[in-house]
């Protein structure tokens, strides 16, 4: 088995040694019928910053056997993800404008089962232990995920969900997730990832499963031919420099359709974040609201003249962080191999702080809400 303990703590030129080996598209294995869609209302703020708001997750794993590798996992992901997407076809969807006139300008629609999920396989000439012992990992983690910016009028051709499998020099590997906030937030994504993990493990452990997946890159590569560098630019937009806090509202203490109650809730959460970090947030925030109807509303929230809603204090549970999602133990591609490193962050490229109000996973009644506040540096 490969030795991963060489040159611990040595800083390598990570970016120059990152090479994309393959890019594939993963579609749901069954046609979605009838097609489902989700409306996205951007309103008066159709700027490109809204299209780039997303979250990233990185899971790192040991090499548990001689046959285990990132390439092996990527080959099986091509199949297991296709099965998982049958239950969540919007993740393979595309974003298209439906605002053709002044009455619905800024309105978009995500159509299921269109653009597909991009699956990236990469290699890095760096040992995992060199990476994990670095004091500052944020910039490096940004290279373990993939994102291609979305721009109008080409939104129908841009994926909203990416998976990148990166092989470290020592044999360990990472799986990076990138997902548009139009699709999911980190909390709502946990249920899909847990389900996908179970599908993957069950598929690989089947008695009649082949030892090598169909889309195993080393098997497809010609002998004596090195892989071309498909993509190796410095993607600084993936670097996470934002602090995020998550608030849980265990009871339906307000009606979000009531602007006064919604504004009071937002201000209360913002004040909690300011007290936690000792820093003032911007007077205007970008507000993402997703109700149980699945529609997404993107608004500008102005704090001037808004008072916090004191009566919700006892129902507000705070101080949860994105790294506390519980995914490190559950997101596995091998039953015996749990993640040895996990990180999650939100990208907010705009000039405003970001706040998301979303339903809690598995709560069909809509009585529980998550409020996620991301503060820019």
TrEMBL record:
The organism sits in which domain of life? Eukaryota
Q: Which Pfam families match?
A: Transferase
InterPro entries linked: CAT-like_dom_sf (IPR023213), Plant_Fungal_Acyltransferase (IPR050317)
A molecular-function term among this protein's GO annotations: acyltransferase activity, transferring groups other than amino-acyl groups
Q: Which PANTHER family match?
A: ROSMARINATE SYNTHASE-LIKE (PTHR31642:SF176), TRICHOTHECENE 3-O-ACETYLTRANSFERASE (PTHR31642)
Stated family: Belongs to the plant acyltransferase family.
Q: What is this protein called?
A: Uncharacterized protein
Q: Which organism is it from?
A: Solanum lycopersicum (Tomato)
